Amino acid sequence: MTAVRIDRWLWAARFFKTRSLAKSAVEGGKVHADGKRVKPSKELRLGQTLEIRRGDLVQTVVVQELSQQRGPAIEAQALYTETSESIELRELRKSTRRMERAGLTVPSSRPDKKDRRALAQLRDLDQSWQQAPDT
Fold first, then answer.
1. Host domain of residue 12
2. Distance from C-alpha of 62 to C-alpha of 13, rounded to nearest angstrom
3. What is the pLDDT at residue 74?
4. pTM (2 d.p.)
């Protein structure tokens, strides 16, 4: 087998639950092959790079094997390798979501003078609260 339809391969590699979902994702521009938007009937070859967007998750994978049949998850994972940049971005996004859920946000810039004064007041308040005698 030298080539396989991209929608069939995405389904066989378990990126999408059904082939129709894979087809609609490709038609919707959620899948790019070698940096270009493709159609569902595009023939996929070994070594091609795919960028797959599912929700806010973007995965960049390199095709290692071709398959038209959906098999077990272990076999599906052998069909591709994810790039290291994609893994790093996914892990970074995962940790950012965890922090946001916990109520923490990463500031976009250094604090200005007003923010530094507010932080100093909080620090002083915290120290005075710790030093207060228990009643």
1. 4-101
2. 12
3. 93
4. 0.73
